[in-house]
Amino acid sequence: MKNILITGCSSGIGYDTAHYLHNNGYKVYATARDVKDVKRLASEGLDAYKLDVTKASDIKDMLSIILTNDAKLDAVFNNAGYGQPGAVEDITTEVLKEQFETNFFGLHELTHQALIIMRKQGYGRILQHSSVLGIIALRFRGAYSASKYAIEGLCDTLRLELMSTDIYVCTINTGPVRSDFRKNATKKLIENVDYKNSIFKREYGAELFQREKSKDDDMFTKESSVVIKNIVNALEAKRPKPRYYNTLATHFLGTLKRVLSTHYLDKILYRI
Predict the structure, then answer these.
(1) Which band of pLDDT confidence, cut at 50, 70 and 90, is reported for residue 41?
(2) Is the pLDDT of residue 45 over 60?
(3) Least packed by Cβ within 10 Å: which of 41, 51, 123, 174?
(4) Which of 65, 156, 52, 144 is nearest to 107 (CA)?
């Protein structure tokens, strides 16, 4: 039986992926940062553990548990992350650091430790959850986009460094999916941005808060099943793709990035 460690399983794609793989023959180690979420996952039949990806000691302990139980690590899905909205000029350096601690440095720490194991055993799969915003940028998403662009560079380099091995790194570029992501992002905006005194006060109200209230009803927002399908392919294909686009939004904007000049692409993205 293949095993997989998944981070960020409290809700959304991580939660749905953990349950799907658990129900389809994988031994899933489902992790979350909050104890209440871990207890809930365990009550639903998952092997659930507390893991804060910003703590290297937590990662080390989690991997030790897996090796003690199974003596191997087949796959990792680096899914943990959150969105920090706000115009770049409204985001302090400390807030940007917090965004990177989870979305990028936590991902790297788990990747770093997992690779030590996978190098020894001679194989493995590492799935890195990026975003459509790791391909293109949108207004008021600078902190999140920067963290995902960083993941892109890390993955592109890792693929080259692992090319002569049976260890595969796959980048998962996901567009809007029905989850608590927007709701949680709005909380981060309120918590970390002085939006009431910002020059973008009107845009925050019209764009960010209103989008959160929309309850993901737009035509571009899809169910997590569209992502899970590609995750399964990345895990089971003999030679997985280096990159998996998920949702129409990712395919559409990714195509525009390839065919348009920066000048014309900026004009389109400004209106989104």
Answers:
(1) very high
(2) yes
(3) 123
(4) 52
Three-class SS of residue 165?
coil
pLDDT score for 219: 61
Q: Is 144 a catalytic residue?
A: yes
Average pLDDT value for residue range 116-139:
97
Residue 92, by phi and psi: left (phi above 0), alpha (psi -120 to 50) or beta? beta
Tokens 């920067």 belong to residue = 146
- pLDDT at residue 221, as a whole number: 79
- Which segments of the chain does DSSP mark as H helices, in order? 12-22, 35-43, 56-70, 93-100, 107-121, 142-161, 181-192, 201-203, 210-213, 225-236, 248-259, 262-270
Q: Residue 188 belongs to what domain range?
A: 3-270
Burial class of residue 226 (count of CB atoms within 10 Å of its CB; 0-12, 13-18, 19+):
middle
Sign of CA dihedral 206, 207, 213, 219: positive
Is the four-CA dihedral 102, 105, 107, 109 of positive or negative sign? negative
Q: Are strands 47-50 and 75-78 parallel, antiparallel or unpaired?
A: unpaired
Q: Are 182 and 212 in contact (CB under 8 A)?
A: yes
What is the CATH classification number for the domain harbouring 10?
3.40.50.720
Q: What own/partner pairs with CB < 8 Å and gap ≥ 24 does 204-210 have? A: 204/140, 207/139, 207/140, 208/85, 208/140
Residue bearing tokens 């992501």: 181
Res. 216: pLDDT tops 60: no
Among the listed residues 144, 149, 168, 245, the single catalytic one is: 144
**What pLDDT does residue 188 have?**
95
The pTM assigned to this predicted structure is 0.94
End-to-end CA distance of the chain: 44
